C-alpha cells in the first residue's frame, strides 16, 4: 500500500504540473464529474456522517472500501437501499451481493442508480397547425448507473492487512439525446491495531474515463432556435481522490458499546467549498458515533458537509449537515434507517434513507 500511495501522489503531481502548463487541460476534467458515485450507500453509514472507510465490514464495503469485504461474518450477504432527493424528484437506489471465495478472499457485485424519471419532452407540443396538443408530450429519464465488481484478499504483511480493489463501469443516459460509457478502478486497505481501525481508499486511481456521444439530430433545431451550441462527442475524466478513515470501539458495559469514526476526503482538483482548502488539496472531514446494545440495536449520530455559504445580506457563514440513524438486527436480517440534514442546517434538503441487509450461512 506504501507503493500505491506514492504512485497515487505522483499521478496527482503530474496532473497538477500539466494543468499549470496548459490552461485548457482541465476542460475534460470537470471538478464534479460522476458525483452520483460519491453520495454513499447504506443507511448505517449515512447515519454516522457518511463515514465508513475504516470500519465497514459487510457487503457495502464494495462501495466504501473493498478491503472491508474480508470482515464479513457470513458466507453470503445481500443489501438493498432506497432514498429520494429534491422532494421526490430524484430516486437513488442501490443493490449488492457479496460471497466468499475462500477463507482469505471475497468478491462482490454492486449496482447504483441515480435518476430523474418522467421528464416531459415538449418539443412537439405545438403541432404543424400551430395548435397545442398535449398528447404529443413524451417522457424520458435522465439516469446514471454505476456497476462495481469488487475483490478483497487478506495479505500476511504487517501482521495481516486487508486489501481490495474495484473495477467500475459507468453508464449515463439522458433519454435518447445523450449517453456515456466509462470505466475506472479503486483500491483500498484496512488495518486493525488493538481497538483502533484504520482505512485508506484511492478512488478513480487512474482517472475514470467517460466517453460521451450525443444524438445531435434530436436537438439541433431546438438548439439553433435558442442560440445554444449543439453538443459534440467528448471524453470526460473523473480525477483521483483519497479517503482516510479511523475508528475505535469502546465497551461501555457488558451490554452497551460505543464506536467513534472519522473520515477525511482529500481531493486534488483545486479549491472546493470544504473545511480546509488550497490550490493543491481540499480536505472534507466527516465524523460519526454509534451506540449499540448487544450489537443488536443501534443509535447513530454524524456530521459532515462543512461548507461556507453566502447569506442574503452578503455575509458568509459556516454550515454543516447533522444526521441521525437507527438500526436493528433480527437474526440474519438487519434494517437501518437514517435521516440526513436534521433541522435543515445544510444547503441541501433532508432525505430519508432506508436499507436492508440479509446474511446467509452466518458464522457461529
What does this molecule look like?
- It is a single chain.
- The protein is globular.
- It has a single domain, classed as Porin (Beta Barrel), CATH 2.40.160.
- Helix content is 11%, strand content 54%.
- The longest helix has 20 residues, at 2-21.
- It has 364 residues and is mainly β.
- Strands 1-2-3-4-5-6-7-10-11-13-14-15-16-17 form a 14-stranded antiparallel β-barrel.
- It has helices spanning 2-21, 43-47, 61-64, 216-226, and strands at residues 74-85, 90-102, 105-121, 138-155, 161-174, 178-193, 196-203, 208-214, 234-238, 241-251, 256-267, 276-277, 282-293, 297-310, 316-330, 333-340, 351-362.
Furnish the topology, listing elements before pairings.
Layout: H1 2-21, H2 43-47, H3 61-64, E1 74-85, E2 90-102, E3 105-121, E4 138-155, E5 161-174, E6 178-193, E7 196-203, E8 208-214, H4 216-226, E9 234-238, E10 241-251, E11 256-267, E12 276-277, E13 282-293, E14 297-310, E15 316-330, E16 333-340, E17 351-362
Antiparallel strand pairs: 1-2, 1-17, 2-3, 3-4, 4-5, 5-6, 6-7, 6-8, 7-10, 8-9, 10-11, 11-13, 12-13, 13-14, 14-15, 15-16, 16-17
* Overall average pLDDT: 86
In total, how many beta strands? Answer: 17
- Output the helix-strand order: HHHEEEEEEEEHEEEEEEEEE
CATH top level is Mainly Beta
For the record, the CATH architecture stands as Beta Barrel
Q: How would the global form be characterised?
A: globular
Kindly, what is the distance between the CA atoms of the first and last residues, rounded to a whole number of angstroms? 32 Å
Q: Helical amount among residues, as a percent range?
A: 10-25%
Could you please say which CATH topology applies here?
A: Porin
Structural class: mainly beta
* Poorly predicted segments: 1-26
User: Radius of gyration, Cα only, in angstroms?
Assistant: 22 Å
Give the number of helices.
Answer: 4
Number of domains: 1
Strand order of the largest sheet: 1-2-3-4-5-6-7-10-11-13-14-15-16-17
Describe the largest sheet. Answer: 14 strands, antiparallel, barrel
Report the portion of residues in β strands: over 45%
Amino acid at each position: 500500500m506504501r507503493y500505491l500511495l506514492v504512485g497515487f501522489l505522483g499521478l496527482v503531481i503530474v496532473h497538477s504540473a500539466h494543468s499549470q502548463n496548459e490552461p485548457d487541460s482541465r476542460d475534460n476534467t470537470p471538478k464534479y464529474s460522476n458525483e452520483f458515485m460519491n453520495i454513499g450507500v447504506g443507511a448505517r453509514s449515512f447515519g454516522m456522517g457518511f463515514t465508513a472507510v475504516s470500519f465497514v465490514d459487510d457487503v457495502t464495503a464494495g462501495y466504501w472500501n473493498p478491503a472491508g469485504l474480508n470482515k464479513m461474518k457470513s458466507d453470503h450477504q445481500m443489501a438493498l437501499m432506497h432514498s429520494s432527493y429534491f422532494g421526490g424528484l430524484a430516486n437513488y437506489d442501490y443493490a449488492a451481493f457479496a460471497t466468499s471465495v475462500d477463507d482469505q478472499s471475497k468478491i462482490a457485485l454492486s449496482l447504483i442508480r441515480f435518476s430523474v424519471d418522467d421528464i416531459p419532452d415538449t418539443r412537439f407540443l405545438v403541432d404543424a397547425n400551430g395548435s397545442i396538443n398535449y398528447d404529443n408530450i413524451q417522457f424520458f429519464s435522465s439516469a446514471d448507473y454505476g456497476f462495481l465488481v469488487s475483490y478483497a484478499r487478506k495479505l500476511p504483511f504487517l501482521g495481516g492487512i486487508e486489501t481490495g480493489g474495484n473495477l467500475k463501469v459507468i453508464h449515463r443516459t439522458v433519454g435518447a439525446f445523450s449517453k456515456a460509457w466509462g470505466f475506472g478502478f479503486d483500491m483500498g486497505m484496512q488495518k486493525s491495531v488493538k481497538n483502533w481501525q484504520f482505512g485508506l481508499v484511492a478512488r478513480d486511481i487512474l482517472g475514470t474515463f467517460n466517453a460521451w456521444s450525443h444524438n445531435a439530430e434530436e436537438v439541433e433545431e431546438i438548439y439553433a432556435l435558442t442560440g445554444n451550441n449543439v453538443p459534440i462527442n467528448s471524453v470526460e475524466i473523473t480525477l483521483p481522490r483519497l479517503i482516510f478513515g479511523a475508528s475505535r470501539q469502546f465497551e461501555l458495559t457488558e451490554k452497551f458499546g460505543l464506536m467513534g469514526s472519522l473520515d477525511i476526503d482529500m481531493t486534488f482538483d483545486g479549491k472546493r467549498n470544504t473545511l480546509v482548502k488550497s490550490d493543491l488539496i481540499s480536505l472534507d472531514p466527516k465524523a460519526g458515533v454509534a451506540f449499540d446494545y448487544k450489537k443488536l440495536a443501534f443509535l447513530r449520530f454524524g456530521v459532515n458537509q462543512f461548507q461556507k455559504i453566502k447569506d442574503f445580506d452578503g455575509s458568509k457563514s459556516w454550515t454543516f449537515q447533522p444526521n441521525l440513524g437507527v438500526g436493528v438486527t433480527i437474526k440474519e436480517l438487519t434494517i437501518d434507517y437514517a435521516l440526513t440534514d436534521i433541522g435543515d442546517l445544510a444547503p441541501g434538503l433532508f432525505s430519508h434513507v432506508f436499507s436492508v441487509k440479509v446474511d446467509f450461512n452466518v458464522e457461529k
